[in-house]
Amino acid sequence: MPNMIEAIDVDKSFLSGEDTVEALRGVSFTVPEKTCTFIVGPSGSGKSTLLYLLGALDRPTSGTIRIADEDVTAMNESQQDVYRRNKVGFVYQSFNLISNLSCLDNVLLPYIPSGVTSELRDKAVELLKQVGVGNRLKHKPSQLSGGQQQRVAIARALVKDPVVILADEPTGNLDRSGGDAIVQLLRSRESTLLVVTHDRRFITPDDRVLEIEDGLLKTNC
Amino acid sequence: MMWTFAWQNLVTRPSRTTLAIIGLTIPLLAFLGLFSLSRGIRDLMGNTLTKMQDLQVIRQNSPSPVFSDLPSDMADKIRKIAGADVVAPEVWKISPPIDGKGGVGAMALGMLTKRENSLKGIANLVVIEGQDLPEHLKLKNAVFKGTLLPKEKGGGRFLTLEDIGKSNIVISTKIARDFPNADGSPKTTGQTMHIGGQEFTIVGIYETGSLLLDITIIMDIGVARKLLGVGTDTVSSIHVEPKTAADGDALADRIMSAIPGVRAQPISQFDLSIGAIMGKLDLFLLLAVTLATLVGGVGIANTMLMSTMERYVEFGVMRTNGWTRKNILILVTTESALLGLLSGAIGAMTASVLVLVINRFLNGFELDLSFGLIVTSFAVALMIATLAGLYPAWRASRMTPMDAIRKSGTM
Fold it and tell me: B304 CA to chain A: closest CA distance, Å?
């Protein structure tokens, strides 16, 4: 199976006051396409930092990250914008839906600047139905439960047909059954999935695991 | 969709949006109100006199012919001055009560008793002009004669030499309306008016368009003297027509040199003076309103800045979904432009209603809210709000997704 993600000797350090924090140190790994990978480790180990680098939200201090044969670390800002709009879907711990927009418009958020076509609207409606909130199209996020909001967030990530879905603690604000349902939903897609989590109960034998501790990749299996 | 999104962002923060709109609407109301007033004053003055080169001679320091008195033999002295062509004496006084109404006493009483009467009283003031008809009929630039209504509209005729010694008058359409018949219909030619207890026949009706002039009843100077108690040795002013129009100013200087204690000036000077004063007033209004509008703009900037600071995470989410800096800039600027449009619309509507209401209580003077003023206020509101939103928009657009993550602790 070809690799979707390739990280080569990635370092990330930043200043915290007068101290330099080395969040990632020489991290290298590959992720085959259409697989599910869990990034685990204690708090502050560098999991989320790695996810932000994969999503082109931040740049590594050194090293290279290639996703779908594109060097994410060499992109300029406008290329990163295009990459985030077309190639990668984000799912956050705190859902991060736009409170003023309906569920449907939240799903269509990436296309608001360029204009929403009827095809895109139909696609968004279909996705909301698929994730189980098809009866909440016009509802505002505040009218939904946490689980329903996360489903809308997943639909928003999927509407772009991303090659990679990056989920940062997607079950962190949900109860156990809600968390199970969300992970199941994410697994059901055919995208390459990377999930940062503290909760190892979601990991199955078929999944890949990247365990990070103190910025070092401890386990890659 | 961007406009819809921007609109939703405003309506979901109703208190802040309302306060920002009020902050910009108030200076816009001031803009529309003050310039409506300015235009109203200009309308009141009219421009009938602008092109007149004729001179008016009155006693020095008298504010108007009504308060001036000159010896009657001064007309002969002026006739001897080079360049003077027609020299026409006039008697001007405030009219006694007409049809039992008005007059100085009634006006003063109204001003003392009811506030709303003060404006009506001033506007209803009527003055009598007694013309030396043999001389006045020689004038080429006679204001009232030239503004007589067409005969088919009931204009009648102007005074002639046959009216000397007769109780015939020419009135304005305003006076015809203000002193109507018993059934409320305006007075027409052939009907009569009682001025100071005497009966006068209306032979002509004029309309200059200037509410300062349209308060004049014209009659023969001899009849006016009897009515107003002015002796034959006195006149109020002398209308002087120069032989050549271009000689007006020089002739005025010659008259003032030859006859001490008088003021001679082109009648057009009256309009020019008013125009100069109004120009300065407009400049002052513009400065005051500009300051107020800038304060309104600062209010919008503050609102948008607060709004964008609260929405860092939201902008971060947009950036992670492919929104560019330019997209964020456009969104925030659109929001502030919408605030400007709303302020402009509310300001225009409120000002229109207020002007209508206020004009109902004014008589003889109206605030003039033109379409051009409304369009200008819209443009000002839009421009100020858009400019005020640029800095908050720029700040929001400078934020990176990682800034949002750091500010929120987590996304």
Answer: 16
